[in-house]
Automatic annotation (TrEMBL):
Homodimer. It comes from Kiritimatiella glycovorans. The keyword Metal-binding does not apply. This is Histidine--tRNA ligase. GO terms for cellular component: cytoplasm. It is found in: Cytoplasm. GO terms for biological process: histidyl-tRNA aminoacylation. It comes from the Bacteria. Its EC number is 6.1.1.21. Transmembrane segments: none annotated. One of its GO terms (molecular function) is ATP binding.
Amino acid sequence: MGTDAFQPVQGMSDFEAPEVCLWRALEASAREVFERYGYEELRTPVVEPLGIYLHSLGETSDVVTKEMYNFEDRGGRRLALRPEGTAGVIRCLAGKGAEGLQARVYYLGPMFRCERTQKGRKRQFHQAGVEATGAPNPRVDAECIALQVALLEAMGLKGARVRLNTQGAPHERKTVADGLRAALEPVREQLCEDCARRIDQNVLRVLDCKQESCRKIVAEIPAPVTFMREESRSYFDKVRTLLEALGLDAEQDAKLVRGLDYYAHTVWELTHDALGAQNAIAGGGRYEITFEGKTVPGVGFAVGMERVIDALRAEGVRDEDHAPSGGVWLISLGESALDANMELACRLRRAGIRCGMELEPKSMKAQMRKAGRRRANHAVIRGEDELREGTAVLKDLSTGEQRTVKDERLFEVGNLREVFEWET
Ligand code: HAM
């Protein structure tokens, strides 16, 4: 077997310490912020019926046509690994009647898209997101954006920018599409092959094309808002006024479109300049999704955790800064010290003190190195001499200062913290 046998599936990752420590810290701050804003956690399965995605994300969206991990199970059911969180959440809420139409839920977890892998594009990636269901209300949209900004701040990210647009009411979709089609038809030949096809299938997506030639054309045509009615414009104006009142900077981008079809009215993306081509850290918007004849309106967003981490690293955050630290490392010189320290470790841990030790005989140097790597505050060193004299050497690992203490002090569980905090 080649070394590839030890690698995860392409586009997916193993997460080890200390990287995983940064992940845990970010997940903890996401939960804290979501709950501060009154959202409750909802965990839906990673596998859902394929139909819910075909139906809600749009049959012509890239996610559905090119990126789904779908399969038939042993019973011939057509299933998919979730490519995003919203559809599954709404599937669950739609079944709950009135309660599901007034929900505020959040989720954290892996999503799967079989995209061409490149920097910032994974096949298993992770999102932290929220959904707030209920009739369209610009205050909920504005609060949702404020929550998202608060979340990124709590995660320690500084340089994210909000770009904002409207897709108009669902019943305006056709008018907007017709307007854009009329503007693009005369220049069809100059568009890339994909966009020429998009004119017929999903014309809004032309606005999102990254090809330079298409971007030039898109810059010249009227923005979708031009084809919308007054109600939609004033809904959008209200969202912007509220954001301004909340002191949030949101740049209007009249050509911003989102890759999923369920959006209506407000849409937004958060980008970070340090990220290169895949610079969207988060995206969201208002939507309407219909399941089994029940239409659920809502608004929400999802933050891409890998991209937040890339941006944090670009801003100088280090994984190690989030690794667990503190407590004590027991250093044993000789077999008898190993046995005696095992007993001490057991007591310390029972008393709630973070405590580690090697269970194999190792050199003093190797054990001290490990204590440093595990970021212990103190080391307790015991060898034959200390055991005989009933003492231990207690070392403060940040200052290097050490002193000999009577070992019964270490065993007096009530007294341990004091012993270890002797320095302060
Ligand atoms: P989305 O824009 O498709 O929206 O994804 C949200 C975020 O997930 C993106 O901004 C990006 O940071 C991250 N992301 C997406 N694909 C990948 C990938 N292949 N690799 C790494 N990160 C990725 C949604 O998923 C909507 N469900 C958001 C939403 C919730 N709208 C309303 N409610």
